[in-house]
Specification:
InterPro entries: NADH_UbQ/plastoQ_OxRdtase_su3, NDAH_ubi_oxred_su3_sf
Keywords: Electron transport, Membrane, Mitochondrion, NAD, Respiratory chain, Translocase, Transmembrane, Transmembrane helix, Transport, Ubiquinone
Strand content: under 5%
Order of helices and strands: HHH
Number of strands: 0
Radius of gyration: 26 Å
Protein name: NADH-ubiquinone oxidoreductase chain 3
Structural class: mainly alpha
Subcellular location: Membrane; Mitochondrion membrane
Number of helices: 3
Helix content: 55-70%
Largest sheet: none
EC number: 7.1.1.2
């Protein structure tokens, strides 16, 4: 039990030392690009209620729905060969959703 106490004290002071060593000796450079969110293109300072298109999110949803589910269902079909009807119904609803989004003109690549 006493070894546990010594290990705990050792690691506590070790991490405490590393934290303050990093805090006092780290280099911090302020760049104007650090004000922007990562890969979003929106400025985090200033007016925040700027309207933008949701087309990117629809395309992301289509990618997740049709690409990833297609590969996961293909692997599922290869392991369970007796569930053809379930596989057919899932793909039928996927194609139905695809044509529904095509009908709503959400598949346009130009904004």
């Amino acid at each position: 039990m006493i070894w546990f106490f010594f290990y705990f004290l050792f690691f506590f002071f070790y991490f405490f030392f590393l934290f303050f060593f990093n805090f006092f000796f780290s280099f911090f450079f302020f760049f104007f690009n650090s004000l922007f969110s990562f890969e979003s293109g929106f400025n985090s300072l200033g007016e925040t209620n700027i309207f933008f298109s949701l087309h990117f999110y629809f395309l992301m949803l289509l990618f997740v729905l049709f690409d990833l589910e297609f590969f996961l269902l293909t692997i599922f079909l290869m392991t369970l060969k007796s569930f053809f009807l379930i596989f057919f119904l899932i793909f039928f609803f996927m194609f139905l959703a695809f044509f529904f989004e095509w009908f709503l003109k959400k598949l346009m690549w130009v904004f």
